[in-house]
Specification:
The complex is a heterodimer of chains A (about 375) and B (about 300). With about 375 residues, chain A is mostly helical. Chain A is about 75% helix and about 0% strand. Classes of the chains: A mainly alpha (about 375), B mainly alpha (about 300). Chains A and B meet through helix 6, helix 7, helix 13 and helix 15 of A and helix 4, helix 10 and helix 12 of B.
Chain lengths: ~375, ~300
Amino acid sequence: MSALTNPRARAWLGFALGAVVLFAAAPALLTDFRLSLLAKYLCFAIVAVGIGLAWGRGGLLTLGQGVFFGLGGYAMAMHLKLADAGEGNMPDFMELYGQLDELPSWWAPFANPVFALAATVLLPMLVAFGLGSLVFRRRVRGAYFAILSQALAAAMVILLIGQQGTTGGTNGLTDIEGFFGYDLDDPVNQRMVYFIIAGVLLALLALTRQLMNSRYGELLVAVRDSENRVRFLGYNPANVKLVAYVVAAGMAGLAGALFVPAVGIISPALIGIVPSIEFVIGVAVGGRAALLGPVLGAVAVAWAKTALSERFPGTWTYLQGAMFVLVVAFLPGGLASLWGMVKRRREAAPPAPESTERVLVKEVAA
Amino acid sequence: MTVILGQLFTGVSIGAVLLLIALGLALTFGQMNVINMAHGEFIMAGAYTTYVLQQTITDAGLSLLVALPIAFAVAGAMGVLLEWALIRRLYTRPLDTLLVTWGVSLMLQQLARDVFGAPNVQTKAPDILTESTSLGADLSIANSRLFILGLVVLAVAALTAALKFTPLGRRIRAVVQNRDLAAVSGIPTARVDRLTFFIGSGLAGVAGVALTLLGPIGPTMGTNIIIDAFLVVVVGGIGQLKGSVIVAFVLGMLQAMVEYLTTLSVAKVIVFIAIVAFLQWRPQGLFTLRTRSLA
């Protein structure tokens, strides 16, 4: 029984279980088509882990994660398009629109795989750092920050669509065939992409768990709950928030980069205001402050969307709206908090006083 | 010279539209600190009200005039319903209000799709508004733009007068300035909130009527304008109207000028950067109420 009460042992057990499900059960049980869908959902789950950190733990409601997802996705797609076209050639869509005689200069570095891979993570982090350090330092927060982050998503989409000749416009970057020399039409290679995504998700979960349990994680929760008190204690809340925002942006960028080989497309429709807020709903449903809540919520919501919107597109929109209303208004802790409620009720039956330490842990988690 | 004048007026008319859609928000966001993402759908409701009225009253001019008060009432009633059902439970959680009202806006959009169909619909503007007034040699201004400008001036004047001279306006200002003190002075803050929400949402309905003159009516029309409206209020500073009025016209001018020099998409991005830069200088917006809270 000690393995179930010791938090460290439980974490190891959880990761082992997750690894078994993702690496053994899912590939064995699902068809190639379903597995590729799961790969897509896991990309959303990676974004959700970042939102869980920034919003659930840090109170930063970021409605523009699509921007970072898009930056990562476009960086990866640009490299893959250039690789598909071959040395010295332009990507097919540029030839199609025929406005350009040669590759635009800001495309050129993405031909280098190392640069492109680094850019998928560093570019979103850089943008988040730029916006975050400006905004947080001047104590723009709460709803103001949410609206600014959403406006960023709107501006990014308008820019992408406006620059059709070099970004593919509304269509985005499509028809991606190869992934670092592997043919993406081959189901075996699709499977490999899935395994990479699952591995990245598990690694990022481990990293986020470390971050949440560290002193920094406690500070982040403190900033969320009482920013002024943290300031009076001598910390700078702006830096604490900035770290969470930048880490979340990096995760979203990585997710976008992995999304491209898994789905074969990146376009403005995948990164605008609506998809950005759809990232948030999964996190809210699963439980924003829990570690696994955002992951399970994101996968569940994405799965429900595919399953329902194929057959009843209208119903899905109503359901999605209702989910926002019901979960956020009446169950702010998400489904993860149900588990805690059940446990508390069960513990309440024999009136044993809880130690203060456990009450604190619960309050932090809630 | 003509070019400059033309761009100047384009800027003013963009600003007028911005102000019209942001005016209701300035009231609800400023008064109650409530972020109502469904505000755009109230605008849509106003636009569809115009459309429905035109189906029954075929005369375009008359239906437009009748639509103004009715759209105000329809959108206002929707706002009161939303406030009563959800928002009053969430006053202490502004970020959650944002998400909840987003959910409401999704449902309203789908409702519009189910009732009126997904394709955009169009209303017929009265003849006098489809013409344009010429000013000088080669400068002419669309009458619909002039009408909207007039409507905005009227709406701002009426709202300012109401806030300044009526008992309700006094109560609203009292609640904005110090909610607790207003409450202990015997002002029923909950009822004032609901009335404010009625007026703010009603103004969205009026904006919807005006927007039918400029473009098609569709289920997603609200989403496209709501962000701009929020930016106006954030930059203007909450708690009073003059900030939003100034900022709407300044942003309109900026947009028109940059758009003339570059392209629409670049203009949007530059306006966004300008807003972030401005908030560096004044993080609480252009005008703020002085309070002793830790900000």
